[in-house]
Amino acid sequence: MIVLLTNIMLSVIVTSTPLLLAATGELVVEKAGVLNLGVEGMMLVGAICGFAVALKTGSPTIGVLGGMIGGALFSLLFSVLALSFLAAQVPAGLVLTIFGSGLSALIGAAYVGISIERLPHLAIPGLSDIPIIGPILFGEDILVYISFVAVVGVSLVLRYTHVGLVLRAVGDSADAGHALGYDVIGIRYLATLFGGAMAGLAGAYMSLAYNTSWSENMTAGRGWIALALVVFSTWRPFWLIAGAYLFGSIMYMSFFLQGFGIAIPSQFVSALPYIATVVVLVIISSNKARIRMSAPACLGKPFHATS
Amino acid sequence: MMNRRAFNTLLGGTAAAVGSGLVTSAEAAVPKVAFVYLGPVGDFGWTYQHEVGRQEVVKHFGDKVSTSFIENVPESADAERVIAALAAKGNQLIFTTSFGYMNPTLKVATQKPKTFFEHCAGYKHADNLGTYNVRFYEGRYIQGVIAGKMSKTGVIGYIGSIPIPEVVMGMNATLLGMRSVNPNAKMKFVFINSWYDPGKEGDACKALLDQGCDIITQHTDSPAALQVCEQRGLKAFGEATDMIKFASKTQLTSPVNNWGPYYVKRVQALLDGTWKTDDIWGGLDADMLVMAPYRNMPDDVMALAKSTEADIKAGKILPFNGGMKDQSGAQKGTAGKSLDDGQLASMNWLVEGIEGKLPS
Fold first, then answer.
1. ipTM value greater than 0.90
2. Quick check: A114 and A213 in contact, CB under 8 A?
3. Which helix (H) or strand (E) is B48 found in, with range?
4. How far is it, in rounded angstroms, from Cα B24 to Cα B21?
5. B113 with B237, same domain?
6. Roughly what angle, to the nearest 10 degrees, separates helices B165-181 and B136-150?
7. Which residue range is the domain that position A247 belongs to?
8. Cα angle B245, B167, A215; round to 5
9. Which residue range(s) make up the domain with B316?
10. B159: domain CATH number?
11. A44, A201 in Cβ contact below 8 A?
12. At a CB cut-off of 8 Å and minimum separation 6, what does A14 contact?
């Protein structure tokens, strides 16, 4: 039983981590007033870049950096379209998702059917060997810890620092930010780059830890779940952890229950995470006050400096 | 070659592939043969093996025929458009290589009576539409025998795609093989509702291992489950193709779908003008199914696997030798006599020892 519980926890952590990484990045982007729907595409580009770099260098750790850089560079396409040329953000984000799935397949064609070493697990002598707690708390790979550090970091920066204040100002009232002399477009570029890097990181997790190979469309909709998570959290970083682990558990449990002999139609099982998303969004949106409190007022609105 | 194919993927649609992805022959006289694939040719599973078969055609006939393929064709209305476009382009023989293309293929076949069609794994026929498939269950039975010998917990995990007879047949054959050496063997299963989704296949594999299965087999096309088992130091079977390079310490064997000889034969019939509709269901004896080399097992198990393979080939072992019981304990078929092809092709019940019910 104890072994079973440990295994379940370990599997759920692996399922939840990419959701948490990508959602943390998107939260920062949205806090700056930018709605980038291209998370799925950036994750895919991150996944193939991470995989390719890991294969060429022989180091999954360098591969992780490759994934981040790939995701960040790819997000520039969105920034140029939506921030510089003032294209509507929704279609620009969709372009990123559709183009990203094609581009990653193009780059990835040469990497199909190759397997690499998994991103190493932490092994702290003594600590990692403690039953149950050991492998769960001290035996994960580095990205699991980074996902939590990122949430804490983002929360602290947004709440307590000048940078965070400026970012939120730009997201709540771009005109006011501009009047105060801040470079609205520049700040949004940086926020979008951060979001791209985090999505790339999430993608790299998919191809270097979740699976250890590349395959087309391997993120299978996780980018969209990450987007929903940001709304689920009502733009509060710590709620992302709850959301990501809730969704990760649902994704994992849908298979687990079947294995227990509970006859659920497989179509329902594969729809479960999305059904959960809809249900959660309905519940959240019923509380309008909370959304008004935290939602960036300028979310998704293009900004053009008129003076 | 990669570039053109990948460029089509980049454009993001099969419609684009129809327009530009075909290798057009300079000589109009050369007969054209086309293949419609479900996944990417790089799936290293189902679609990859069909592509290997197509390449055998190319090798065998050289420039006497011109072949082309379209990959990533969804089993939806898109399939009909793709097949119709191939027929309109003058292909004389079109292989549609997934169960879900059955109705689209039939529809186009009715509209294009002069074009020949061959549909893989289906059951609808016409004068210009034949079907072909492999008796996959023969290989599954051998896997079951190996699993029965290798499993310590006596529980095998089965990653299924969707509960159609083809998949159910594989599950039953596996457990029957397993019970032939371990009468108490059990099976747990998970359906992932997809033929190819490495993420889900890996998750399903973990869920099954977490529940006490110590050996995994699959009816899905990616090597993800093998990789999970490799990380945990357990054994598993590949699917459709030899996946040993993904999991050298893990793969026991893999059923390999060997379409090449069949494709060569049918293209030859086209060239000779003797093509006729048919209904082929070949197995180990027809070489349409071959087993990847037996590895990662003790010598006695390997010997047993080889003798089982030989006995199935010779007809001495009938995987669905009647006398088995379903989950309710009811007798199925008659002892000593194999279920007939009709009973196999419509199988919608699980044998005793499989845990969990089929979703209805």
1. no
2. yes
3. helix B46-61
4. 9
5. no
6. 40
7. 11-113+141-294
8. 35
9. 138-254+292-345
10. 3.40.50.2300
11. no
12. A209, A210
CATH code where residue A204 lies: 1.10.3470.10
In the numeric block, which tokens belong to residue B191? Answer: 């359906």
- Candidates B51, B156, B187, B193: best to mutate against A (most CBs of A within 10 A) is B193
d(Cα B207, Cα B216) in Å, to the nearest integer? 11
Residues A260/B211, Cβ–Cβ less than 8 Å: yes
Is B188 found in the same domain as B324? yes
Domain total of chain B: 2
Is there a domain that residue B355 lies in? Answer: no
| B279 lies in the same domain as B325 | no
Q: Say if residues B122 and B102 touch (Cβ distance below 8 Å).
A: yes
pLDDT tens string for chain B (360 positions)?
Answer: 344 444 444 444 444 344 444 444 444 579 999 999 998 787 777 899 999 999 999 999 999 999 999 998 988 889 999 999 999 999 999 999 998 999 999 999 999 999 999 999 888 999 999 999 999 999 999 999 999 999 999 999 999 998 889 999 999 999 999 999 999 999 999 998 888 888 889 889 999 998 889 999 999 988 889 999 998 899 999 998 899 988 899 999 999 999 999 999 999 999 999 999 999 999 999 999 999 999 999 999 999 999 999 999 999 999 998 778 999 999 888 888 889 888 898 899 999 999 988 876
Size of interface A-B (CB pairs under 8 A): 137
Contact B6 A105 (CB under 8 A): yes
A→B contacts (Cβ < 8 Å), by residue, are: 4, 7-8, 11, 15, 98-99, 101-103, 105-106, 109-110, 112-113, 115, 118, 206, 210-213, 215-216, 218-220, 222, 251-252, 255-256, 258-267, 269-270
| B314 within some domain | yes
| Cβ-proximal residues to A178 (8 Å cutoff; 6+ apart), any chain | A184, A303, A305
Answer yes or no: are the C-beta atoms of B118 and B233 closer than 8 Å: no
Amino acid, res. B103: N
Between the alpha carbon of residue B173 and those of residues A259, B29, B224, B299, B332, the distances in Å are 19, 47, 23, 23, 14
Phi and psi for A180 in degrees, rounded to 5? Answer: -80, -5
CA nearest to A3 within chain B:
B210
CA atoms within 13 A on the CB side of A1: 0
